[in-house]
Design brief:
The structure holds 2 protein chains of 2 kinds. Chain A is built from 11 helices and 19 strands. Chain A is an alpha/beta fold. In chain A, a hairpin with a 2-residue loop joins strand 8 (221-226) and strand 9. The chains are: A alpha/beta, B mainly alpha.
């Protein structure tokens, strides 16, 4: 991804460093002029050091790190708000920093006037603002209040207006510092859609976020900063894994099940991850419900007693749908230098769409990650009626109130009762028989009997099933 | 959003073409660069052939670049000045009348009190004398009062987006011009009432106003940058303004001072006030010593202001 031939550079940093000077006592002109104090006690702090970076035109680039790692300093440098103490920094194209919404807003001015102030501050000309005014007001949903002073706005309206102006600023390079999570849920959805639209238009986006899911979803490359130094640049999964390692090494971090992972790349290496169909041929397409095989081939770099192979399935927007591993079963030792392969299978009970599966090798104690591999894409052809994140294979039956010829005699209904584990109350005249029989049938066919019930009940089981 | 180019501190000038700020439309128009053969070998993406809009090598800005950025920041200056204006006068019940009323009221009080109490009333046409001195004085007070702390007061703006920071004191200079213009108009209108004839010498008001604005702007720029680093500048300015009126011949004619006149002439505002007097009631004349002193002060303050801006404009945000 880095340095794709044909990509133009949008942001270039070479050896950039930023040092801040904090004075212990605020210096006063009078005392400085008269030299009344022996000298100003001050602390010099390198907030950022040795950053070399190239962001391509149109790329979405993320920056993660702990608080105090220099992320905001980097954003301020790229946005031109401050200048580097050492090194050189170049940006091509118009830059709009989105460090907080409503920059330049004043409470006494109306919404309309504030749009003009904020827009001018973000680099738009008056004519450009005129053209976009309606779109901005529409996005912010404040049409009725656009001519009242913003001191009468609710905090939500205020923030929506600020964000609306910012997303219509149409810069070449957009710098986002943690402001995507504003407003209520519906507005956040609009903002994410708008951000995706901005990205698809070819705007270079540099974003800082603590929300690792958003970073994984939206960024092509991610930089990890720690203590002002760049630690890793690469695909989101790699940087996030290194971030977990860094977090675990900091003793003051509370270790929960997610961030207690260490990363030890010296034990095992994953060489290949292949997706195979039922017949063993490589595939990237699978029908819903069909098994998909994932073969992980790797090599142990030193002797390992046991290891755990894990899979995670992601939806297209980066949501983790399902994760499972071989933990609990004994994988067995692998001698140093020896290759190994592990074949895992799962059923693709998913709606139509594209997904990713990522493989990982952990140590047997599940606290250390040994290797991971970039996710592989696959596509599921699902049932057209299913939407959402998973296909839970709903079945249905019709059960009318008395008078209908319902009962155990109806083959479809009986099959349905079996299929659902006998929980359907057959409202037949011989209700007692039916219910008496149901538990017995239920015992034969519990939930896993679904597969066998399927072929029999064709007409009752709603939409088509294979 | 920043269209600035920052050369190396040593000052080697490279001939970057300027990119106007704000850029209209997408600034990348016309960047279809041909790929050089080395781009396949070099791991990082190819650098565009057009110059960068943000090009920072260090903390200082060369004067020509800063001047160009200031020129490009005109729309921002205009809209921030209008915002100041609306905020000040929008909600006041008499609104714009206060812009006229306050200076006239102050001048009237001074004229009445000092002509009765301190017997300065022998100066010819004393009410107009006082008014013509008060107009520039009140402008300086208003502008320095808010302009000297302008960068720190707008920290929310300065710490979140780039624009040349010296725009902020200049906004105060421009916003104060409205009240000043109205006061001068009122003064010119009142001249015939108090028996002062208008004539060609009234045109002296133009260079007088120009000198006043330049002095005020330069003083504001210097003070506002110093204020970022030394936070007691605010109080020094307030104290200074209190004393300053009495060393400027606003209430009294300078001729009354005798030997102390030299001290008063060194005051940068004396020359300006003298020009205003010369335009209305007559006086020492436009080529007095004090006027030359004022011009020298203006040059010194402009040069200092420019030097401070070039060195600190880019990094003022660090201390906000």
């Amino acid at each position: 991804m880095a340095g794709t031939v044909g990509g133009r550079c949008a942001v270039e940093l070479r050896g950039v460093g930023k040092r801040y000077t904090k004075y212990v006592d605020t210096p006063m002109l009078v005392t400085s002029a008269l030299r009344l104090r022996a000298g100003h006690r001050r602390d010099r702090l390198w907030a950022l050091r040795g950053v070399d970076l190239d962001v391509e035109d149109g790329e979405s680039f993320g920056v993660i790190g702990r608080n105090g790692s220099g992320k905001s300093t980097l954003m301020m440098l790229v946005g031109g708000i401050t200048a580097p103490t050492e090194g050189s920094l170049r940006v091509w194209g118009r830059v709009a920093p989105l460090i907080s919404v409503g920059v330049g807003f004043h409470r006494e001015l109306t919404g309309r006037e504030n749009i003009y102030v904020n827009g001018t501050v973000l680099g738009l000309t008056r004519r450009q603002i005129d053209r976009r005014l309606d779109a901005i007001v529409d996005f912010a949903e404040v049409e009725q209040f656009i001519d009242t002073p913003v001191k009468f706005y609710s905090s939500g309206m205020f923030v929506r207006l600020g964000f609306a102006v910012a997303v219509h600023a149409d810069p070449d390079v957009l710098i986002v510092d943690e402001v995507l999570a504003v407003g209520d849920l519906a507005f956040q959805v609009k903002c994410y859609e708008r951000m995706n639209e901005i990205r698809s238009r070819g705007t270079t986006v540099v974003m800082v976020s603590h929300h690792l899911g958003a970073v994984r979803r939206m960024c092509e490359r991610v930089l990890l900063l720690h203590d002002g130094r760049p630690v890793h640049v690469g695909p989101p999964e790699e940087s996030i894994a290194r971030f977990h390692e860094v977090l675990a090494q900091s003793s003051e971090v509370r270790v929960d099940h997610d961030s207690g992972l260490r990363f030890d790349p010296t034990a095992v290496r994953i060489d290949a991850v292949e997706l195979l169909a039922v017949d063993g041929s490589p595939t990237a397409h699978v029908e819903v419900g069909e098994p998909l095989t994932v073969r992980v081939r790797g090599c142990a770099l030193r002797d390992v007693d046991d290891l755990v192979v894990a899979l995670t399935v992601f939806a297209a927007d980066g949501t983790a749908l399902y994760a499972d591993s071989t933990a609990g079963s004994h994988f067995g030792p692998v001698a140093g230098g020896c290759a190994f392969a592990c074949t895992l299978g799962f059923r693709a009970r998913l709606p139509t769409g594209s997904y990713q599966v990522a493989a990982r090798v952990d140590a047997a104690d599940l606290r250390t990650t040994l290797a991971h591999f970039p996710p592989k894409d696959f596509f599921v052809t699902g049932r057209h009626t299913v939407a959402g994140l998973a296909d839970l294979e709903m079945q249905w039956t019709r059960s009318d109130v008395e008078g209908t010829a319902a009962g155990a005699g109806q083959p479809g209904q009986a099959t349905a009762a079996r299929a659902l584990g006998g929980t359907v109350q057959a409202r037949a005249p011989h209700g007692a028989d039916a219910t008496a029989g149901a538990p017995a049938r239920g015992a034969e066919h519990d939930g896993s009997g679904r597969a066998t019930a399927m072929p029999a009940g064709a007409s009752v089981h709603g939409p088509d099933r294979r | 959003m920043a269209a600035d180019h920052n050369d190396h501190k040593v000052g080697a000038c490279r001939a970057f073409s300027d990119r106007a700020w704000p850029a209209s439309g997408r600034a990348r128009g016309g960047l279809e660069t041909t790929l050089t053969a080395t781009s396949a070998v070099v791991p990082s993406p190819a650098r565009p052939e057009s110059p960068a809009t943000v090009d920072l090598h260090g903390e200082a800005t060369p004067p020509s670049r800063l001047a160009r950025q200031l020129w490009a920041a005109r729309p921002l200056l205009v809209i921030l000045a209008r915002k100041e204006f609306h905020v000040r006068y929008r909600r006041a019940s008499f609104g714009l009348l206060w812009a006229v009323g306050l200076p006239l009221l102050q001048s009237a009080i001074v004229a009445v009190v000092f002509s009765r109490v301190a017997r300065f009333g022998h100066a010819p046409h004393y009410p107009v004398f006082v008014l013509s001195g008060m107009a520039p004085w009140l402008y300086v007070t208003a502008v320095l009062g808010t302009g000297a702390t302008a960068i720190v007061d707008s920290a929310d703006l300065s710490s979140r987006v780039y624009f040349p920071r010296v725009v902020l004191p200049l906004v105060q200079v421009v916003a104060g011009l409205y009240g000043f213009a109205v006061t001068v108009a009122a003064m010119v209108a009142l001249c015939p009432v108090f028996g002062v004839g208008l004539g060609p010498r009234t045109l002296l008001l133009l260079p007088a106003s120009a000198l006043l604005v330049v002095l005020a702007a330069a003083a504001c720029v210097v003070a506002s940058i110093l204020h970022v680093y030394f936070r007691d500048v605010r109080y020094l300015v307030t104290a200074g303004l209190m004393v300053w009126m009495y060393v400027t011949p606003v209430i009294y004619p300078a001729a009354d001072l005798g030997r102390l006149r030299v001290a008063v002439d060194l005051n940068p505002l004396t020359g300006v006030v003298d020009l205003f007097h010369a335009a209305t009631v007559g006086g020492a004349g436009p080529m007095a010593v004090a006027v030359w002193v004022s011009v020298c002060w203006a040059v010194v303050l402009l040069v200092s202001g420019a030097a401070l801006a070039c060195r600190f404009d880019r990094v003022a945000a660090d201390l906000l």
